[in-house]
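FAQ: What does the model actually see?

It sees only this:
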Amino acid sequence: METLSFLSIDDQPISVEKTVQYLQTSGKLAQFIGDIMRQYVIEQEINTRDDIEISPGVTEQAIIDFRLKNQLADPDTFQEWLKQNGTDYPRFHASIVLKFKVDKLKSVVTATKLSEYFIERKIFLDRVVISRIIVDSRELAEELQIQMEEGGNFEQLAKEYSLADDRVFNGMMGPVSRGTMPDILRAAIDIAKPGQIIGPIEIEGRYGLFRVEQFLPASLEDTQLQQALQNELFEKWLAEKIQKLTVKLQVS
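And it is asked to produce this:
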C-alpha cells in the first residue's frame, strides 16, 4: 500500500505517520489535533447556520481597504504580494470571507450571554487607581497617618518609608482590579472617595496606607472590553462543542 505523503523536505517525502510521530515526540500532537478540532467545529457551524451570511459588498470593501492600507492598489504589486505569501486571489478572498463569518458567529453565539457574563465578571473588570505606603509595623503606619493628617506629603512619605517597589513612583500602583484585591482592602476602598486615605490595613504581615486616586468602573459600552468578553465566551462555547466530539487517530 502506498504511504500517503504529508509534505516533503529537500524532496524527501514525510508521511502522515512520520508527521504524527514527530508531533508526538515534540509534545505538540495534542495542540495540533486541538487546532484541527477547533477549525472543524467552526466550519461545521458556518456551513449549517443561516444567520451568519456576509454581504459580498462588505467583503469587497474590506479587500479594497486592505490593499490601500498596505500599498497594494497596483494589480501587479498585489499579485506579487499574493505570490510571496503563498496564496492566490480566490484563497485570499475566501480567508476574508471566513474572518467575517467567524466574527459574525462569535456575535451570534454570545449575544444572549454577554450581559450576564459581564455582570458575573464585573468585580474583576472594575479597576481602581491607588497609591500606597507599605511598612513593617502598625505603629509606624499610624505615625505616618498622623503626619499626613497634620499636612504631611503622601508622595514624600511613600518615597522615604514605603517598602514596596512602587515607592520610586511616589507609591502609585496604577489601576488595580477590584477582584484581585484582598477582601479587607476592597471593602474599605468601595466606600472611600477619590483622594481619601484609608488604613492602616494589615495585609500579609505588613501594614498599608492607601490613597484612592480614581475609580475606573467597567462598562459594556467599551468596545474593546465587549470584544474581549465576547472572545472569552466564544472560547468557552468552542470548548464545550469540542468536548462532545469523538476523535479517532488514523495514520496507517
